[in-house]
Amino acid sequence: MNPFLSVVLILLLGLFSPLPSQSRPNYEYLWYEAENMRGFSTGKLGEPLLNPSYLNLSRDKAPGWGINGPGVSAEWTQGGESEWNSAAASADETSASLSQDLEIPRDGRYTLWVRYADWANKEENFVARVAQNGRQVFEHEYGVRDVIDPHDEVSMYWQWAFAWDSATVDLKKGPARLSIDIAKAAPVRRNVDCFVLTNDQSYKPVGRQKPDFAAQRYLHSWSTSRKPIASLVPASTTATLPEAWLRPKISGRDFLMPWNTAKEFWAEYDKPTSERILYPFNAEPIDLFINKYKSVKDSRGLH
Fold it and tell me: Which of 12, 47, 83, 145 ranks highest by number of CB atoms within 10 Å?
């Protein structure tokens, strides 16, 4: 069996198959990214406003919660933000709220871990709240004490370091809403990366590493034995994808997402079709790239 297909099948098994009962603890890990929460300040087109850390904007230029990231040197020397971005609010912000609706899988005591920028010898206060059945059941203020030793090398270099801090809360199975609120100014900007809610009281997050999910545990187990996996599809079977599974094409082509496109590309639309660069590009040097690839067609003869 193709090794790539073997890994895919292991991942699928991990996602959809239960672990053996004797090795499956009743632990839940609800991991959420701050940049995916609701409540960001928006622009005229409804897009979230930006509040990049390196600009250190004030409230009048970046009101409420804004999008920070992808971070620059300070963040990436610490492994970067979890996923890609984070949420940020200016130091002089006094009223802002983000919220996340989630489903508590079972009754019990949970720990709410939040990853945020911990400034050395300064407060970067914000409040996390949880509501269930129309009433608030949890409130805890983060950022009121140093979690990272101010003498930590990263903290000394950048004046801040990513930190995980936690508080416990008793929750009931069912819907809940978690909010991250600001109600007063602080000496420095607030920057929240992500949070995880878990009933595993021994769990302590490190960096941006996520807990082992089911698929990962299967992979760890399989890596110790390397036992060959029997194919779920007979070798003689020819698989044909249903039409409904195929991604719709746009103008006869697969979907294309331009990213980091050079401004020179847009001038290509002023040229005749036969002389254009086929795809969005960014290259150095630009002139040599354009001269080499102008008028090149794809395998179907399209410009």
Answer: 83
